[in-house]
Q: What sequence folds into this?
């Protein structure tokens, strides 16, 4: 007896796949499954993958600058897990956790190294708000919620502090042994100085922004130090956002064999409602237009973020893993796709989620309200 039996789905290679889930876990996968089930979902030929993970969002709804609601950017859009990227710090992350536990979507968080997270745009301009001991205490207090730390290293955030906040983040990281995500943007600090502080496994988000301080040089090629960082194992993450994804940069990077290993949205309520982000599927469709294969896209929102943030029970279709699934179609459809700098591309194909499950609980399109 299955709690949920998925019939008539396809894996991303197009092979028939049926899945049985019990007690929130995948217990069987096969081309064809038989047996009784409390609930049967007919995927009607849709693709199925491990549940999509958006590893850079802002969904602490009590904030003012950047906020959203987990289920609006989660199960309502085919995303089963979201990771809030530094909206909160040690001073308010317990309040965020209390709200996040109520969501249908799995919610994790990166702890902003500044006390209150992004209450103001310049949270790293006052170094007195970075308290290592309190950060460590909070991480120990919420080990199942805090899966990494976050430092935003761009001009509007750091004030006159240069590279110092990043060095403080790296020191904290060395003690708590958690992943570090670093936001890059306008100088100061210079991108080269930021990348020099990082090591393999550290995550650079907004990797394909179109800013002068980004990875693309004025001669139209990827900067040498950025190539070096990529080849040394620093993880390049999309983090689309309102101002941080540029088609040309993504295309040039692709041509120089620099691909984003993880794809995330940096979504919050305004760029969800007004664009250019809208949802994770739209971001995936933009990378499809750049030339990423379906296998690369799905890996970048399943396997890669699960590995980057040590989500051991997520990210792959295997017996024993969490029953988090995303069902989607790859449709031949011409739509206008817009990057963060108002550059336009026209799609030939788009990804369209149709349903998802979180721990075996099904959320279909008609229920996503």
A:
């Amino acid at each position: 007896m299955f709690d949920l039996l998925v019939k008539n789905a396809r894996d991303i290679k197009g092979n028939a796949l049926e899945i049985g889930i019990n007690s929130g876990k995948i217990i069987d996968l096969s081309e064809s499954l038989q047996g009784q089930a409390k609930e049967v979902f007919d995927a009607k030929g849709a693709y199925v993958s491990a549940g999509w993970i958006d590893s850079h969002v802002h969904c602490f709804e009590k904030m003012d600058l950047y906020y959203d609601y987990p289920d609006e950017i989660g199960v309502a859009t085919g995303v089963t897990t979201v990771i809030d990227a530094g909206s909160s710090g040690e001073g308010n992350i317990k309040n965020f956790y209390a709200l996040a536990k109520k969501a249908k979507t799995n919610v994790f968080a990166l702890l902003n190294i500044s006390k209150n997270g992004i209450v103001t745009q310049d949270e790293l301009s006052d170094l007195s708000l970075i308290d290592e001991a309190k950060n460590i205490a909070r991480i120990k207090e919420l080990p199942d919620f805090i899966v990494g730390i976050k430092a935003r290293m761009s001009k509007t955030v750091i004030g006159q502090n240069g590279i110092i906040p990043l060095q403080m983040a790296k020191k904290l990281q060395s003690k708590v042994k958690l992943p570090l995500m670093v936001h890059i943007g306008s100088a100061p600090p210079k991108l080269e100085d930021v990348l020099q502080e990082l090591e393999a496994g550290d995550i650079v988000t907004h990797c394909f922004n179109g800013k002068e301080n980004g990875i693309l040089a004025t001669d139209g090629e990827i900067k040498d130090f950025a190539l070096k960082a990529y080849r040394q194992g620093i993880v390049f993450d999309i983090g689309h956002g309102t101002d941080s994804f540029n088609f040309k940069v993504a295309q040039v990077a692709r041509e120089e064999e620099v691909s984003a290993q993880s794809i995330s949205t940096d979504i919050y309520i305004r760029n969800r409602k007004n664009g250019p982000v809208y949802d994770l599927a739209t971001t995936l469709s933009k990378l499809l237009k750049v030339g990423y294969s379906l296998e690369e896209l799905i890996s970048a929102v399943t396997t890669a973020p699960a590995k980057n943030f040590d989500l051991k029970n997520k990210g792959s279709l295997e017996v024993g893993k969490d029953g988090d699934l995303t069902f989607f179609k790859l449709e031949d459809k011409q739509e206008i796709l817009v990057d963060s700098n108002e550059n336009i591309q026209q799609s030939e194909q788009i990804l369209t989620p149709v349903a998802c499950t979180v721990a075996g609980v099904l959320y279909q399109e008609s229920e996503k309200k």
